Amino acid sequence: MSSSTATHSVALMYHAIGGAGAADAAQDPHYTVDATRFAAQLDALVRVAGGATCARDWLAAPRRAAVLTFDDGHASNHALAWPALCERGLRADFFVNPGKVGEAGLASWAALREMAASGMSIQSHGWNHRYFTELDDRALREDLRRSRLAIEDRVGAAVTLLAPPGGRMRADLPAVARECGYAHVLGSEPGLLDGADAARALPRMSVTAALDVATLEAWFEGRGIARARLRYGVLGLAKRTLGDRRYERLRERLLGAGDRAR
Ligand SMILES: [Zn+2]
Q: Which helix (H) or strand (E) is 231 found in, with range?
């Protein structure tokens, strides 16, 4: 184990990785991290945190660490992220939608099985990316059970973690998820990973295309977290005030066409 300068644990939330062979319409440019940048970020995690692990393994033995997660199951997770992780002996959780696996731009079941066989953790991002806040109680429970069982069936490994699509969740989601066979929920609210409390969603720091290594390293010293939380709070208020659809339109206009919320 390399030496570590990190004073805090942080879970990172990635989406697609960009680069040769990864260009496709399913990728949101705001959340697509260039492969060269991604490699530099992994090297930084090795330097400051002594490596990186997946939430599945971290929750089994919480300690100071970097936790890597990917949402949406993009094809680039298999084509670009997975080889870069293996090269460095790192692990990550991949939160996928079983109702969408195999669609253009997304990783296939065969790809996910290959990743799982190498030690990666394949977990649930809901059935087909419908926001949980749009589902009634019965539909939510069905979505949680159905997605977990489908991934377990096709990948052949236990699914214990849930990341709600778009980070949209009701306050009792961790309790409902536990009833549906999950041990933990990973949210999209920024924060430090300061424990493995199953009663609340674990915070994750969102990695966007523009993130630089200095900012990433600062998170592991607890710097820049409050700013990210403030920004998330303001955006959340805009979502609640405008409603999801009007918020997405506003965001598109501010950030550029083709930039969709994940
Ligand atoms: Zn998503």
A: helix 225-242
